[in-house]
Amino acid sequence: GKRVAQSENKRGVELNLTELRKCTVSFKPLVDRRKLFSKPIWIPAYPTSLKESIHKSVINQLTGLKQGGKSYYASAKAAKLRFCFGSTETATCSNVHPMIEMAGGPDKKSDKFYSEYVMAIRNPMAAIPAYINEKQIK
């Protein structure tokens, strides 16, 4: 076959670098991550529909945040974690649906979360027996 010259690309058209050579390269200073703010997304689920370990693993794979997936009901003094907010960034916050009536529950904190949510759905024929079975084990 015909050999293409080095100044040509695969289609045989010569690249014009004249305009690219006029470009000035500049860098913006890095933005302090603490100044960036993004609200977490709710992930409501019927009990036993979404294991916390799976939730955390999926969010880690999607966002790269090792602690991006949190449970609304978990707390830790060392990490200052309470209601999905703590010393690390939160991408998603799982909670039980339907919600249990409680003082200061998830519905009272809706301004701190995106109004959209991701609903974890499981076949009720499997979820309800799994929930009952889990309650028996505990």
Task: Name its key features.
5 strands, alpha/beta, single chain, two-stranded antiparallel ribbon
Please tell me about this protein's structure:
The protein has helices at residues 18-21, 52-63, 124-137; strands at 41-45, 69-71, 75-76, 81-82, 92-96. Strand 3 (75-76) and strand 4 (81-82) form a beta hairpin. The chain has a three-stranded parallel sheet, with helices on one face. The longest helix has 14 residues, at 124-137. The termini are far apart. It is an alpha/beta fold and 138 residues long.
Short description:
By secondary structure, the chain is of the alpha/beta class. Helix content is 22%, strand content 12%. The strands form 2 sheets. Strands 1-5-2 form a 3-stranded parallel sheet, covered by helices on one side. A two-stranded antiparallel ribbon has the order 3-4.
